[in-house]
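Task: fold both queries, return tokens.
Query 1:
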Amino acid sequence: MHIDRVESGQLVARTIFQENGNVLLGEGVELNDRYIQRLRHLGIDYLFVEDGKTDDIHPEEIISEETRRQAVREIHNVMHSFKDAQDVKGRVIEPDMGRKFRHTFSSIMTDLSNRSTMLINLETIHSTDAYLFQHSFNVAVLSSIVGLAKGFNRNQLEELGVGALLFDIGMSKVPAAIINKKGPLTKDEMEIVQAHPKEGFNILRKHGDISLMSAHCALQHHERFNGSGYPRQLEKDEIHLYAQIVGLADTFDALTSNRPYRKRYTVSEAIEYLFAAGGTYFDHELIKLFCSHISIYPVATTLMLNTGQMVVVSENNTLALHRPKVRVLKEADGNAPATPYEIELKDRRDVTITKEL
């Protein structure tokens, strides 16, 4: 639910995290005006709330809360260790980094292996300050699922997963004032930001227990299929496949996250953007594979139909991701139905989704 529609007295239905992975507001906490204002101040625009009409609808997390918390904590700690270090040249600041992140990736793979379907729903709620760390985790999960779909072996998955967890480590060298700037960046600020892939590569390649292929996820994740990226303007297969996957996952998760300089895209809008970028920014076949595992309208998403009805997604249809099953919350006249009922959109061609609420 958008925070503008949240009311005092409602209960938090899914935990909200701080930047270090600790709990900001836990599941079951009763919201009040002070909490709501605090969430707004932290840049949180959507959150899950309890609703008697949808008590039986539970959006399934693809990764457990404990795995996420531990992973985000590791990312937070290692990013801060490099942010606090003035010079990384010739020094290994985190000698156990490779071992720690292989263990973290192993936890992610354990969670994924317990899933019957690889349909992705990463609707985790976090503060703006937590973006960098939660973002790296989300990119790792998205990348790992693409790696599984492509049939990567365990060693390849580990190289990709560790590289994805650490792909943005070079951002530890970018001042927070630039990262959180609401307006356009100056030329000098843009040069600092565009140096982060090389900074990240230089950090990772000094750690002998991290694969050079993992380090290339940091170096090449902003390269683009048509040569318009940076830092080396590589094209097509000149870009390592791991970096292509991480770059695609990075773009998708960035689009669907709330940022200081723009509002988030909906998942469906982000998918439209990716398909429009096929053959230019990203390989078209890779985009198709990636999007086939994305929940376009995640369970518990509130939608408006062309009939004027307000509905909530109750179940995804894996054979028609754009046509979920929905539960009617309000009829076109604004009143709740006397008896709750659902519409299977894949069977109703006359009913379309007009927008997400």
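Query 1 returned. Query 2:
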Amino acid sequence: MPEQPLIHARGLVKRFGDFTAVDGIDIDVAPGEAFGFLGPNGAGKSSTMRMISCVSLPTEGELRILGMDPASDGAQIRGRLGVCPQLDNLDPDLSVRENLTTYARYFGISRPDARRRADELLEFVQLADRAGSQVEPLSGGMKRRLTIARALVNDPEIILLDEPTTGLDPQARHLLWERLFQLKRRGTTLVLTTHYMDEAEQLCDRLVVMDGGRIVAEGSPRSLIETYSTPEVVELRFGDERLADLAGKLAGIGQRVDPLPDRILVYTTDGDAATTEVHRRGLAPSSVLVRRSTLEDVFLHLTGRTLVD
């Protein structure tokens, strides 16, 4: 018998006055799954996460978290969740360790257990050497790792991460991905929102692409790429030439041609053959890049625009 989903939503709607932020979505998240919401700002990701974290009740639809109803069991559900909000809200008046031990007390964890748990978590997020430091001097990446450590202090069954690496430099992002991957390997259920497509590919077993409050596609990163894109993409740059005019001359090469402001994308099963055909037609791009398709290509196909910060 299959396991019951930890998160179950049907026809989930969230309205703010006349504005519909989430417009009738269906979600199931299985135990141990890393599940992602991918989309641009304003797509409805954060509003969905606020409903799942029981800080905002649905306007319409059915929502069950850990088999319970947020409307009547919100406090009990929140006690079994770990939440990493979009913006760090650490206490600057407390040390790194105290941010964890103080937070642990909200869950009724004894002081000895809180100190033990804090030390374990600081080791896990590679902040043990900063345990006695104040929060303010920490780098953005360190603060983010501490926020994730705090989300783990109550040994949650589900960890919710709202755009966990926004604003971090590449090194900090990759270190955070490594920590989240370790949690995933331990069987922890992760639910995250992101507008970084490489992040979704790295971390998510399955994801939904949201746009305008609705789910426009769902599946594993690989299955979405296979369904909505081609195996390879050729990126062509032509200097100062008008790309819209050049795109017409590329018609019929590959399955699809998309002109962007700075380059033209040719979607094809064989990038080398497509490049050869470009030159055969007498076109002379200033640069040619053949690469595999990514989730960005999926999003371009589904919404006609790139994801933005």
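Both queries returned. Flag for query 2: The domain at 230-292 is CATH 3.30.70.980 (Alpha-Beta Plaits).
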